[in-house]
Amino acid sequence: MDSNTKKYQYDYWRPAVAADNVVYRFDGKSLQVLLVQRGNDPYKGMWALPGGFLNEDETLKEAALRELKEETGIVPRYTEELFSCSGVNRDPRGRVISVVYYSFIHGGEAQAGDDAADTQWFNIYELPELAFDHAEVLQKAIESLRTSIKLSPYFFYLLEDEFTLPELGRLWSSVYNCKIDRRNFQKHWVAIGLVTNILELTQLPKSPRAPKYYRFNESAYLRFKKKHFFK
């Protein structure tokens, strides 16, 4: 050990650091979150968010993605840091500070691996009892999603690249746990230009009975976001 390394070693207490994942998907009817059944103590047999401890040679996001893949086999479409949790008694093994990440996928089945005994998708309104403080964490994450999803393209990370307006409506209803006026809802999304009819892009022949498929209009979203949220 050289003198410089020794010089900058401090005798401060160091907590453990973990990264946890709130992974969402939309199955066409409801918004779901991915949970793992713990294979080890503490809380063996209980459900929890996928996640684990940070390795010395990785970033928090790398840890979150690694743990998610090891425990469930899932590689998300999009991942974003959400918030941190630092409750003093949140883990019986000792002081653990956790950084929570959003992850979004469409489709995809999970497969238990590493220290997870099982994995399962749950409707966000039909959750089991959760280990640690994960019930509080998940509730906070859902509330954050409801606030931020209007300002972001998260809806479109949960849908297939091509989707129908009724699918978008069902996703909205599931996120906010509410009923919508279907006709006005669809007219609104088309009017603000955030979705584009595929037939208008491809100029394919139209069939009156065929469902109309749409794509997310990213350039329109960026203009809309700048106009409405950055005045």
Biggest sheet character: 7 strands, mixed
**Overall mean pLDDT:** 88
- Terminal CA distance: 54 Å
Secondary structure category: alpha+beta
- Continuous helix count: 8
What does the overall shape look like?
elongated
Unreliably modeled segments: none
How large is the share of residues in beta strands? 15-25%
SSE layout:
Elements: H1 3-7, E1 16-26, E2 31-38, E3 47-48, E4 51-53, H2 60-72, E5 78-85, E6 96-104, E7 116-123, H3 134-148, H4 154-158, H5 165-176, H6 182-191, E8 195-197, H7 198-202, E9 214-216, H8 218-229
Parallel strand pairs: 1-6
Antiparallel strand pairs: 1-2, 1-4, 2-3, 2-7, 5-6, 8-9
What does it look like?
This protein is of the alpha+beta class and 231 residues long. The chain is 33% helix and 24% strand. It is built from eight helices and nine strands. The strands form two sheets. Strands 1, 2, 3, 4, 5, 6 and 7 form a seven-stranded mixed sheet that branches. It has a two-stranded antiparallel sheet with strand order 8-9. It starts with a helix and ends with a helix. The mean pLDDT is 88.
